[in-house]
Amino acid sequence: FTLGCSGWVSIQGSSDRRLTWKEKYLVLTVEGSLLVCRDAESPPDQVVSLQTCCESVAEGREILDLPRLPPGGRRDCCFALILPQNKFLLLLSDSPDDCRSSWPLCLKSLSLKH
């Protein structure tokens, strides 16, 4: 069911017309879906099919107009899923190592298979 990439990240979403960062638990499935959950036990709040809905995966250094990060957030810990219709899902990992070694690589490997 899972591909080996699962864990906590911060996700930027909109709430009350303000952009906010929230901690979410992500699970990457072998079927190519990214499940966005409240915690490891909850059903997904959002499902992103990487093979049909993800146009690309961008790392922090590639995002030109990066919004304000939460306290302690760093550009080299960010990555984004570029979705259709000018939408995106901005994610922030805990460390640059997490960002370089696991999440973007797993996401890119699944999203590029279509």
From TrEMBL:
InterPro entries documented for this protein: PH-like_dom_sf, PH_domain, PLEKHB1/2
PROSITE patterns cross-referenced by the UniProt entry: PH_DOMAIN
Transmembrane segments: none
Main location: membrane
Keywords noted in UniProt: Membrane
UniProt GO cellular component terms: membrane
Annotated localization: Membrane
PH domain span: 2-112
Keyword Membrane belongs to the record: yes
One Pfam family cited in the UniProt record for this chain: PH
Signal peptide residue numbers: none
GO biological process, one term: regulation of cell differentiation
UniProt-recorded name of the protein: PH domain-containing protein
Lineage, uppermost ranks: Eukaryota, Metazoa, Chordata, Craniata, Vertebrata
